[in-house]
Amino acid sequence: MTMPVEPNASASVDKSDRLRAYDGLVKSEAKKALEPTEPVHTTRPPYVAVAALLLSLSGFGYIWLGEPAWLYDSASTVESAESAQAGLRFGLYLTAKRLEEYRRSAGRLPATIAEAGSTEDGIRYVRKSDSSFEISGWKGDLGLTLLSSQSPEALLAPSRKILEQPHP
Asked: Measured between alpha carbons, how far is 105 from 111 in angstroms, rounded to an integer?
């Protein structure tokens, strides 16, 4: 035989159990909400990072290959008139020495400057006779001429100090 239960007693127990269960559920949900969650990972590429990388690479390429004037000191690349004259005098000196060396080894002057092995830019060679020549050189507005009767060392002497200075 079963014992009869009062209707009000079971309803109050049921209510209190339900209230405790609901409180437990609310507290556990609140606790879950406060806990840190793992970040959501996406599979699409980060467009901002890719764009920044491409812009950076383009900029570095421009600076490396283009050597822009606003970044590089263009004033240091401008050659002074004294330095240009010294370079021209040295080019004429080298050419005259090569021509003299060719005459000693071959017994005659070369027909062309290239035959003597000279590759100096802006220098012109004219063979006057079997034993005389004229070489002329230009660098910008500056022009110099050396005859075979003149000393190459005398032509070079005014520029020795400039040529002996170390260049950066």
From this structure: 14
- Using one digit for the tens of pLDDT, what is the confidence trace for 43-62? 666 788 888 899 999 988 88
As given in the structure block, the two tokens for residue 160 are 């020795």
Stated as kind and residue range, the H or E segment containing 146 is: strand 142-147
Q: Give exposure, 7-22, as e/b (b: 16+ Cβ within 10 Å).
A: eeeeeeeeeeeeeeee
Letter for the amino acid at 22? Y
Q: What is the pTM of this model?
A: 0.51
Q: What is the CA radius of gyration of the chain?
A: 46
Residues 6+ apart with CB under 8 A from 67: none
Q: CA 116, CA 114: separation in Å to the nearest integer?
A: 5
Per the structure block, which two tokens stand in for 21? 């269960």
- Judge whether 137 and 113 are in contact, CB under 8 Å: no
The whole-angstrom separation of Cα 109 and Cα 147 is 13
Q: pLDDT band at 125, cuts 50/70/90? A: very high
Asked if residue 110 lies in contact with residue 116, where contact means CB atoms within 8 angstroms, the answer is yes
CA 5 and chain centroid, separation: 94
> DSSP label at 124?
E
